[in-house]
Amino acid sequence: MKAIFSEIGKVCRSKLFLSMLVCLFAVNLYCLLDTANSGAYSPAEYRRAWDEIMAQPVGERLPFGEEKLAAVKEELKEAGLYATRESELYKDVVAELTAENSHEKFVEELGRKKDLITGSVLFRDAEAFSTKSAEKAYGEYAEAKPPVIAEAPSKGVELINLTVTDLLAACAGIFACVVLFVREREQDMVRLQWTLKQGRLRHLWYKLAALFFCSAGLALLFYGSNYLFASVTYGLGPLARDIRMVEAYAHSVKEYSVGAWLGLNFGLKILVLFVMLLLCSVCCTLLKGMVSVVLSFAGLLLVEFLLYSGIAATSVYSPLRYVNLIALFQNQEWLLQYKHINVLGQPVNYGVCAVVLLAVLFVCAVLGCCIGYLRYGKRLEHRSGGRLFRERKRRSGGTNLLCLELWKALIMQRLLPMVLGLLLLQILIYVRAGNPGISFEEYYYKAYMNRLEGPVTERTPEVLNEIYTDALEAKSSLALDAYERVAERYEYLKEHGGNFVYDTGFGVLSGEVQKDKDALLALKLLLVVLLFSASVFSYDPQRRMAGLLHSTVKGERQVPARKYLICAVFSVLVGVAVYLPDFLQVTKQYEVHGYSYPAVSLPWLMQYGEGVSIGTYLVLLYAVRLLLCPVTVVFIMAVAERLKSFVYTFFACGAVLVCIPLLTMLNPSWTVLAYPLYGIYGNPLLLGAWLGIPVYFGLVTVGVVLTLRGRRRLWN
Questions:
Q1: Is 34 exposed, middle or buried (0-12, 13-18, 19+ CB in 10 A)?
Q2: Is the dihedral angle over the CA atoms 639, 643, 649, 651 positive or is it negative?
């Protein structure tokens, strides 16, 4: 046990891990608060309403709630309103009070579906998957006992399984895995450990055991905070009641109590998180380069996410959607609901498939860790001195320092495949996208705006009347909606000036339409720049070459300058590779023109007036993005000089440069978290968030100070 506690201590003593853990925990609390307060009413109002209902005698709670809802609706009718906070509150409360009715209706609907499939001439086939699935599902629900009525609030139990919490816990666990496996390889400690008997395969078992305890601790921290927050804000209600009395789980086929479900849910979160970290451990032990390890992490999560979000539930490939780790984190789907997976034409319970998948992944991950750990040790034993000498003599004799550093980055650190892969990916995205076309409403809007293109004249009202007549003749609500958009633009231009111009393409480019595109492009850019720059700046400290380089004038001053120059130029090139295909695709899809028109023609650019054209704004937008790329490199360089580790640098900078765009894409209301990145986003900065500039350069100033302190600490 001492060895296991020693491995756990490596994680707990890592200042960077603890700092990241505090940040991730704070983000989770912020997301909980935002989710709880994003509805029409506050948690306090919800609890007060339920306190009133629970004060009523048993059997009179539902009538009391329905009376309150009816009274609120009557007040709304008299006031001529559609909805208020109070009406939405009692509407949800009554829905929770009638959860048992929802369960009964669901079972009846399953019965009708089964009768339709088995009795229809078109669908009747005793051997078909749909027939077997419908009969089996209805049989399971029909045999289950109806829930015992027990009124209690549902929001607290529903809030516990927050998707963002799964993501944050996985990020913290992956970093703990990095501390246990990758950091020792960077420090070349594995070579020393391999000389000891306990430093071989037994040492791996200690690490895996420590990884399990880390998974349990992280689950306790993140999911425990969710439990505590939910109980304080909404309340969990009696834990002995049936889980089917919770509105979101009213369709459950299981008869768990709420308390049993919460305990089982927590245990399964630990198990799924542990299996995910085991798979990351396989990547750490099997792969050689640190960049390959990080890319494997990203690839694993990306593939899992694409399988879960990109495959429809009705697709023939739906088993791939459900049988993956991202889906297994949402264990209420496979533990409570009765879904079927099509396995060779036979309906198999989703829960059975999930358990089998976890068992298979667990065994394969443990075997993969053992094989990778042994293979790495064998490579250490068979590495000859001659081979090391040849590796060190490679590229010896070169006199151009810039070419030498470029060779080290692209060839010795194997970054050239990543660069070529990015270029190939961007080309494929542009070529495969083709011309996706536009919607019918957008087609009408484009036609109407092109008819009016230019300044507002005396004939403009006449043309608007003609457009209105055409929209009526089209007999389409979409045409009328497009006309209303044109009429609103006319009223705006009369007041503020400017020209009519088809603006949807400009809206996409300037972030007014498809608001999450700025975050997506910034995420792609920052991820590649971070991978490249972190590898370049951390290479010499990891190879114990920094002290040697400091002993020469070129090594002390010119090597860091050449490294920064390479990374800065690369960051600008990556920016061009990321933004140019998107710009070409948008201009092609929406046939963008009218760059010379004043920026005031677009309502969201009203602040620029008539002195700045739309084209000038776009030039300024892309210039800001590309110019701030080298500034981002300064921050990465600072962290790398301080931490002297590729993986530590990647995760430390990734907490700011990668996690923030991901969170803002998950929920647009969290864009306040992206405030330090408004410079890279571009549009939020140019549209008024000028305070983003001092915040951004404040980060860079901190980075420069850390760089100087880190270098001085190393040299002294």
A1: middle
A2: negative
CA–CA separation, 452 and 483 (whole Å): 12
Question: Is the per-residue pLDDT at 436 higher than 80?
Answer: no
Selection from 150, 151, 153 nearest residue 47 by Cα: 153
Spatial separation of the C-alpha atoms in residues 406 and 413, rounded to whole Å: 10
**How does the average pLDDT of the chain come out, rounded?**
77
* Digit-coded pLDDT (tens) for 124-153: 555 665 666 667 766 767 667 777 777 888
Which residues does 579 contact at the CB level (< 8 Å), separation at least 6?
521, 525, 622, 625, 626
pLDDT at 709 over 80: no
Please, what is the angle between helix 659-666 and helix 517-542, to 10°? 160
In whole angstroms, what is the distance from residue 453 CA to residue 502 CA? 8
Contact 548, 700 (CB under 8 A): no
What are the residues facing 347 on neighbouring strands? 342
Nearest one of 424, 396, 390, 420 to 408, comparing CA atoms: 396
What are φ and ψ of residue 313, in 5° steps?
-65, -25
Distance CA 476, CA 441 (A): 9
Q: Side-chain half-sphere of 355: how many Cα atoms within 13 Å?
A: 6
Contacts of 567 (CB under 8 A, 6+ apart): 529, 532, 533, 536, 537, 630, 633, 636, 637
User: Residue 582: which residues within 8 A CB-CB, separation 6 or more?
Assistant: 517, 521
Q: Is the pLDDT of residue 278 over 80?
A: yes
Residues 6+ apart with CB under 8 A from 643: 16, 538, 649, 652
Domain ranges of the chain: 2-37+153-380, 43-143, 401-434+510-715, 440-507
CA distance 53 to 47: 10
Q: What are the percentages of helix, strand and coil residues in the chain, rounded to 5? A: 75, 0, 20
Length, in residues, of the chain: 716
Quickly tell me which residue has 């990015």 as its tokens.
422
Whole-angstrom distance, CA of residue 186 vs CA of residue 539: 10
Structure tokens at 69: 């809802």
Instruction: Please provide the distance, in angstroms rounded to a whole number, between the alpha carbons at the two ends of the chain.
Output: 39
Distance CA 294, CA 313 (A): 31
CB 465 within 8 A of CB 483: no
Q: Classify burial at 519, counting beta carbons within 10 Å of its beta carbon; exposed 0-12, middle 13-18, buried 19 or more.
A: buried
Residue pLDDT, tens place only, 339-382: 767 666 677 777 777 888 888 889 988 888 888 777 766 665 55
Packing angle of the helix pair 15-36, 659-666 (nearest 10 deg): 10
Q: Determine the Cα–Cα distance for residues 141 and 164; give it in Å rounded to an integer.
A: 32
How far apart are the C-alpha atoms of 654 and 647, rounded to whole Å? 10
Q: Give the whole-angstrom CA distance, residue 216 versus residue 194.
A: 29
